[in-house]
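Minutes, structural biology subgroup

Action item carried over from last meeting: produce the structure token record for Acetyl-CoA C-acyltransferase (Pseudomonas nicosulfuronedens). EB confirmed the sequence was re-checked against the source entry. Recorded below for completeness.
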Amino acid sequence: MRRAAIVAPLRTPVGTFGGSLRPLAVEALGAHVVNAILQKTGLDPLRIDDIVFAQSYANSETPCVGRWIGLQAGLPVSVPGMQLDRRCGGGLQAVVSAAMMVQTGAADVVIAGGVESMSNIEYYSTDMRWGSRSGSVKLHDRLERGRERSQPEERFGHISGMIETAENLARDYGISREDADAYALRSHQRAASAWAEGRFDAEVVPISVPQRKGDPLLFSRDEGIRADASLDSLSKLRPLMRDGTVTAGNSSQQNDAAAACLIVAEDKLAELGLEPMGYLVGWAAAGCEPSRMGIGPVPAVRKLLARTGLSLEQMDLMEINEAFACQVLAVLKGLEWDAAERLNVNGSGISLGHPIGATGVRMLTTLLHELQRRQGRYGLETMCIGGGQGLAAIFERF
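Output recorded by EB:
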């Protein structure tokens, strides 16, 4: 079976909710990264066999976002595209799904990516198709509804959302508010240092954002990082649930961004003149109780290590998506792993943000660039998923 190489992983800067990227739709964000990859690699677009893009909050304004992004980017109409959704793990799933296409010989070159514009997630109604006989029509916030409807209530009971699942883990694993705030502070400090030291320069593609008045502005830097955060400022934030651990300060943000890469068959790299950054070693998905969805990385990582024969000690870097600080800390306890110097070394969801469908590819992009800087060999990426799943993958630097 052919190895699947990862080539030219790139991302936009991450915008805050309602922030700088709000004027841009998902197709504009995705097309911008695709064009940047083609410009960087010089690849003939006709050699692209497929486009696989994740989007977790899709709607009919941009159906089948992978196909739409290809067309928006000006690719030949002969290049097909598709969309997938594994919620928070969608971006990583896009990468591994594209890799399987390459490994099995179904394709030689696939663009894999993820995109989300949480600022533009709409309200919708299920009352209007056949009319409402009387009374008011209800509008759902798709953003909140997607969290509330992550599992069948008739089987698992009512789960108010992801915050509740994080609080369950904080109780289960004895994670204190102080522990969570300290972790959140470290995330912001690491992200701020990464920008200050130029560690994101090679992976971030600035994007021009139109303005209602005046010239477009060039957006070039993640805007959710709080470089001035302190334990004192974080401790003053009110818990989101009564007597809880989770606050706005130790949770992931809601964001807008796109990220993508080329997945290329190893035996086609020389012919196409492409230089890989890494290879997919293996991946695994696992389910867990929806009420404890944040612990999903633990069974996923265990399954992956068993399949590959590798160990956590062999991982030079590890990326765990920071949905909540207490969730990351619970995962570390569940894995019995504590190597802070190798974990999320440039920040993650709490500081950089969590644009749901894009996050998995954003994490991969940061992971591979950091592995290259450190000349490490293996990197592990894992994330929890609403509804009770975990996804994990190991990549080897070229």
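Discussion: Residues 260 and 346 are 19 Å apart (CA to CA).
Next step: EB to file the record with the rest of the batch.
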